[in-house]
């Protein structure tokens, strides 16, 4: 027995890759919040040794891996309906020379932009350019939750931390007030976004397995006071889609065993994220105003005054406006956005399984991982580690993390059997204040929807609507005021009077 364990440990150690060491830091920080570096490192080392010597070797009695494990995300197992669009139907198709708008990327944001253009534009052509397939980026590699966005307390907390670092010109009270304004603006747009999605699925009859039963999020046992504070803030601010539930309620909704209470997002839902994007794109392409070219990477965007020249592998297209919808890959195309759009790797796996106590249809996050159940098995994943810009978009999951997550499946759901068939990773993007960018990237007509901090479903649909509405000059509520959502807040002029200061002073 010790020999078998030793073999597993050697196998694990030999299998370690650079990302495992990067991710170790992420896990250490999230497992032991509030501790100093040395105690954190000691606790983490103890945990890692136990994991490698005892917990992971024990999983071999009930968990197995297909040979080989597929890198295809579970959502993309079927046929890609836009595999080689439009060439399958029209092998001689050519890119148009000039259009009103080019959208770069056909994930959640790009597909949403195409949908909104098809519904609202009465003139002008939109061209969507996608380097792989529709939903081949994070949109088709994710957990499958439609979130209500990050909850108010979280947004306030991350924005405030950024303001504390960067806005010493403001008093502490001003920074706190400003962080509240950001959080309220975000929550307002995200709540509207969730209802727009639900309404669109119903009205359009989009078949994307949408089930709205909420999302249970286990609190870190060392941070229950934060859960209390966050649900109190939700009540006090009126953005009340975030409540505390007991561990019994948590188990009843999710089947997850927790040490204490959990947070619960009432309005969150589960869906098939790729079917959502495909559904939007199908509707968009019914309009003569929308064109899609997949397998067409954009290599450069050049400002030529009245137009942008969008360089692609198939030639150059002139566009009056550009919508950048490539999220974590933004710095690859727009190097100025290095350190403004920070790519972070997250990964997931799927296996045929009895599922243990896990319930289908509800979003589930443990304090260390996320989980979901379908008819035949379970999806599980974790990680949020920054990777270099050139690694954004790659599919390079860590087997060590997958094996660790198996131990969590056992601990929280008593899973008795699993055969892991798919394992993949994707990258999402975080801005320095973890607040999205929806609006202009330059002073002209180059827009973006990005920096959604792993919550793309909470921003992309309404965000893309906002950008399309702005380009078309349509009336309607402004869910993404420039003073909060613009990339200008990270621009070179941010230490000069920012767009925020005059507003603050006027109040
Ligand atoms: C493991 C994991 C779990 C997640 N879970 C959830 C969840 O449950 N709920 C949720 O809301 N969010 C989740 N997310 C985040 C969510 O998937 C993203 O926020 C969302 O997909 C972002 O949408 P997007 O359209 O901006 O970017 P993407 O979906 O990444 O789409 C960008 C597209 O641009 C294309 N592209 C890139 N560069 C170019 C180029 N130069 N030329 C042409 N095309 C290009 C890519 O191929 C890609 O198709 C998760 C992410 C991961 C990785």
Question: What report would you give on this structure?
Answer:
With 507 residues, the protein is an alpha/beta fold. It folds into two domains: 2-77 and 342-430, 2-Layer Sandwich (D-Amino Acid Oxidase, Chain A, domain 2), CATH 3.30.9; 96-207 and 270-325 and 438-507, FAD/NAD(P)-binding domain (3-Layer(bba) Sandwich), CATH 3.50.50.60. 37% of the residues lie in helices and 22% in strands. It contains 14 helices and 19 strands. Helix 1 crosses helix 3, helix 2 crosses helix 3 (37-59) and helix 4 (108-120) packs parallel to helix 9 (273-285). The longest helix has 33 residues, at 172-204. The chain is globular. Residues 104-110, 129-132, 136-139, 141-145, 147, 297-298, 325-327, 329, 333, 346-348, 381, 393, 426, 428, 450, 452, 454-458, 460 line the site of flavin-adenine dinucleotide.
Strand proportion, as a percent range, falls in: 15-25%
Large-scale geometry: globular
Q: How many structural domains does the protein architecture include? A: 2
Pick out the low-confidence regions: 493-507
Q: Which assembly state applies to the chains in this document? A: single chain
Largest sheet: 9 strands, mixed
- CATH architecture assignment name of the largest domain: 3-Layer(bba) Sandwich
Helix proportion: 25-40%
Number of helices: 14
CATH H-level homologous superfamily name of the largest domain: FAD/NAD(P)-binding domain
Q: Report the bound ligands by name, code or SMILES.
A: flavin-adenine dinucleotide
**Broad structural category:** alpha/beta
Q: What's the Cα radius of gyration?
A: 23 Å
CATH topology of the largest domain: FAD/NAD(P)-binding domain
Distance between the termini: 70 Å
Number of strands: 19
User: What is the average per-residue confidence, as pLDDT, rounded to a whole number?
Assistant: 94
- Highest-level CATH class of the largest domain: Alpha Beta
Give the strand order of the largest sheet, numbering strands 1, 2, ... along the chain.
Answer: 1-17-13-16-15-14-5-7-6
